[in-house]
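User:
Note these tokens:
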Amino acid sequence: MHDYTVKYINKVLFSNETIGKIESSEYWTSEYLPWIEENKFTARKLLKNTGYELLQGKGTVQGRLIGGCIEVLEMAKQTPIWPEDNFWEDAIMFIETSEDMPEPQYIEYWLRNYGAQGVLNKIKGIIWGKPYNNKYYEEYKAVIYKVLNELNLSELPVLYNMNFGHTLPMMVLPYGAMAEIDCYEKSFSILESGVI
């Protein structure tokens, strides 16, 4: 397990102290390695990470964390586990893509659906995980810009290339915790403990 992941597992799940600023990992990998005994000491190939990227927004926003893997969220829509409208109010939405690496047109459709539901008008900002294998890295950004522009949300803060989701190493995001996007510093912080 990567030191970065261990750090955030311990900090978020096993400490009642404020989590604080979440730094970007210096490296990343999406290399597939089966979870079998023979691979226990096999390291994945690591690539240099470029850090967080601010796609748009100004100032500092705070909100409670809600979101997940965008493909799984699509499966949850209109089911009993889908969050009620008020859950999105003043939230920071987190989104990432899986190893299925959905084509950009699907991201466009899904984001438009969030717009049609009014979700994107309710939230304070978005944090977006590094695309799996870095596939569609630029294309996803173009789609995010396009849809948010269509919805007159060009000021909504969006922090991109975050270390959560299906790439490694990863941080841990506690649902419902108060978080902050600082557009000036291109930084992300969790303002409370993940446990009580």
